[in-house]
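Hey L., structure's done. Input below.
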Amino acid sequence: MEWNIFVFPLPLFGSKLQAVHPIAFRLGPLAIHWYGVMVALAFLAGLWAASRRGLRDGIAAEKTVDLGPWLIVGAIIGARTLYVISYWDEFFKGKPIEEVFMVWKGGLVYYGGLMGAALACVLYARRKKLALWKVADMLAPSIALGYVFGRIGCLLNGCCYGRACHLPWGIRFPEGNPLNPPTFPVHPTEVYDSLLSLGLYGLLAWLYRRKKFDGQVFGVYLVSYALLRSFVELFRGDYPEYQHYLGGWATPAHLVSILTLVAGLLLLWLLPRPEPRRG
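Output:
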């Protein structure tokens, strides 16, 4: 197997940290990519944590497991659709149509996945007659946990990289990556996202045990993720020039983050609170 390297100029790590080739292993003619492996781990870890958490709200673990395939299909369709729309000219125009469906090679947009998974969750909750906001609260910390794995997959894949970085922790991608990330030092935005999302997971797991009303945890997730994502987007360097707005500093994710922030704030304001108990 071919090996590539990320180069860190930080003395603490030495001069190099090795990272595997985007292809993890092969099953005959089928290449298994690290990106796909990390996405699978994201779903497994998220569903496992959610199945244990949901017991506090009376949601049986088997119902959470049954929800899993709905979320996976919804998230992948939504994430891939938005990616293809966003990067049609760069990666798909003039190429065989089957390239659109090669998800295992990477190429998912998180906000599209969130919308697709949300729709799938609504449909499942209605079909199984589950309280929607209880399910949303159960899933919210797991979404943050899964995002940790997903962004590590981006790092291994060579996508979602940052702008040029002159700080000690800047990283350099190896030459020959099919996504053509820059080989000069860039901000490790995938690492920024992963660490911030891990902290958000801890916050939401803590809040879940102390929530005051159904939907609170999910609302806090939307607000928090929008703010954290907007911060990291300031360091992103992989967007084409025509996808920079508002004088060049805003990315498409910034614009969607504004809508997500507003949606989260509206949920926290409008969702009903339980009536106070009267002694």
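The chain has one domain: 23-270. Strands lie at 3-7, 16-20, 23-27, 30-33.

-- N.
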